[in-house]
Specification:
The chain is of the alpha/beta class and 332 residues long. The protein folds into 2 domains: 201 residues, NAD(P)-binding Rossmann-like Domain (Rossmann fold, 3-Layer(aba) Sandwich), CATH 3.40.50.720; 101 residues, UDP-galactose 4-epimerase, domain 1. Helices cover 39% and strands 17% of the residues. The protein contains 10 helices and 14 strands. The strands form 4 sheets. A 7-stranded parallel β-sheet has the order 3-2-1-4-5-6-11, with helices on both faces. A 3-stranded mixed β-sheet has the order 12-9-14. Helix 2 packs across helix 4, helix 4 packs parallel to helix 5 and helix 6 crosses helix 10. The two termini are 29 Å apart. The relative contact order is 0.15. The mean pLDDT is 96. It binds uridine-5'-diphosphate-4-deoxy-4-fluoro-alpha-D-galactose (UFG). The site of uridine-5'-diphosphate-4-deoxy-4-fluoro-alpha-D-galactose (UFG) has 21 residues, from helix 6 and strand 8.
């Protein structure tokens, strides 16, 4: 049996492909390389460059790989701020892309899919930590595009029997421990890589977006989870579906919150660098606090995240940044 990984050249996708191969699985990767990196894909995976909304291309991938029994779908845009200024880009690639994909999966009879959803589907949570059963009222188009994907899946399950697991990630940070794969976005907008780029001297300073939020130090609080732990959750979710369990949704986080100021302090400790920072106005679409209740994934999937210490997570990201100052630029 083989697993098809869509977006397997991206940040979380590449960690999952690597982990699947370490576990001896056969892996087929599809990635458009619009944001992904060919060099991030483990060389033992079979690689196709293309867009999942190109249905003839996807039919060919399934026809050439009849062993595919399950799909893991990471191939989506994921920047909150960009989605606020270009929402149609998100509804087109994320939501419409999912419809095209499900049509082909239904046609070829592959009816198991694990897909990346997000904490951004919850909007401004009423209670903390956030449970899977809490209301989903996104406050940005990115979160809305993912919530629509979840809803489309629910109806596709009822009508066509396509079983899904939606994994709602909180804030992903860190890199494979040996520093061989990591996070490389263009442009980079995420907090930790930006903090580490300042530590490397590649940027002058960090701008902290808003210090008047309703949190202990006024800066946003987020729950950080490591990509290797996320990768393991995806593999467990595939097993869960292949064991004929019903569709489900799980939060993936560490259940601990760190403010933007705390992340900066922890990065100063890990790197030993000064990391200059200044306060800046709020960025659109940022909720005060996002912390996951992730007991459900632990109980039902048997997920046991290994990285529970923010210093350890930052250390793995720092290993990657120090050994790849240009990201994948030298390898792609
Ligand atoms: N931030 C700064 N300065 C920067 C960059 C970020 O202060 O230069 C702040 C943001 O305002 C926010 C926090 O750092 O308060 C985290 O921001 P990121 O951009 O790193 O991450 P987001 O919380 O916006 O979004 C991430 C993923 C989304 C996912 C969300 C769920 O990118 O896909 O986590 O929590 F939906």
């Amino acid at each position: 049996m083989a697993v098809l990984v869509l977006g397997g050249a991206g940040y979380i996708g590449s960690h999952t492909v690597d982990r699947l191969i370490q576990k001896g699985e056969e892996v087929v990767v599809v990635d458009s390389l619009v944001t992904g990196h060919r060099a991030a894909v483990n060389s033992q995976a079979k690689f196709y460059q293309g867009d999942l909304s190109d249905q003839d291309f996807m039919r060919k991938v399934f026809a050439e790989n009849p062993a595919i029994q399950a799909v893991i779908h990471f191939a989506a845009f994921s920047l909150v701020a960009e989605s606020m200024t270009d929402p149609l880009k998100y509804f087109d690639n994320n939501t419409a892309g999912m419809i095209k994909l499900l049509e082909v999966m239904n046609e070829v009879g592959v009816k198991k899919i694990v897909f990346s959803s997000t904490a951004a589907t919850y909007g401004i949570p009423e209670t903390m930590p956030i449970k899977e059963s809490d209301p989903q009222k996104p406050i940005n188009p990115y979160g809305e595009s993912k919530l629509m994907m979840e809803k489309i899946m629910r109806w596709s399950d009822k009508a066509y029997g396509i079983k899904f697991v939606a994994l709602r990630y909180f804030n992903v940070a860190g890199a494979k421990e040996d520093g061989s794969i990591g996070e490389d976005h263009h442009p980079e907008t995420h907090l930790l890589p930006i903090v580490l780029q300042v530590a490397m001297g590649k940027r002058d300073q960090l701008k902290i977006f808003g210090d008047d939020y309703n949190t202990p130090d006024g800066t946003n609080v987020r729950d950080y989870v490591h990509p290797t732990d996320l990768a393991d959750a995806h593999i467990l979710a595939v097993k869960y579906l292949l064991a004929d369990n019903d569709s489900n949704a799980f939060n993936l986080g560490s259940s601990t919150g760190f403010s933007n100021k705390q992340i900066l302090e922890a990065a100063r400790e890990v790197t030993g660098k000064e990391i200059p920072a200044e306060m800046a106005p709020r960025r659109g679409g940022d909720p005060d606090t996002l912390i996951a209740a992730s007991d459900k994934a632990r109980e039902i999937l048997g997920w046991k995240p290994q990285f529970d210490d923010i210093h350890k997570i930052i250390q793995t990201a720092w290993n990657w940044h120090e050994t790849h100052p240009q990201g994948y630029a030298d390898q792609d």
